[in-house]
Amino acid sequence: MTVVDLYQQLIIEHSKRPHGEGLRSPFGAEAHHVNPTCGDEITLRVAVAGETVGDVSYDAVGCSISRASASVLHDLVVGRPVGEVAVVREAVQAMLTSRGADPGDEDVLGDAVALAGVARYPARVKCALLSWSALADALLRAPGPA
């Protein structure tokens, strides 16, 4: 099995059995984003405890790339400091908007590196970035440390 096959399998698995799916309470902020190009939608909730992302939950309707990206997002950000989450989000965005020129740093991207192939398909980039944009929006709305 090649690395490409492994990445494709990872996307399929996250799409079929998404991690973190289902809106949960309590949460500090919620964001709803829509990709008007294809109709993908996500409502994402974030709970921040101190400086750490305590939980991310979501309800996503869309293609396998959009749903897999949200699932990978959940795995990568829950339990991490908000500052680290921003670094990961920026790395994902850079990788996906590079048109394949930036494969990204696997140490930073974790399983999100499986989405690198999406960068070669500009029409699908918004699908993969939808949940990450909603996360950025929700984190801006979330109450800060007391």
TrEMBL record:
Record's protein name: Nitrogen fixation NifU-like protein
InterPro entries per UniProt: NIF_FeS_clus_asmbl_NifU_N (IPR002871)
A Gene Ontology BP annotation from the UniProt entry: iron-sulfur cluster assembly
Entry's transmembrane regions: none
One Gene Ontology term of the molecular function aspect: iron ion binding
Domain NIF system FeS cluster assembly NifU N-terminal residues, every copy: 7-127
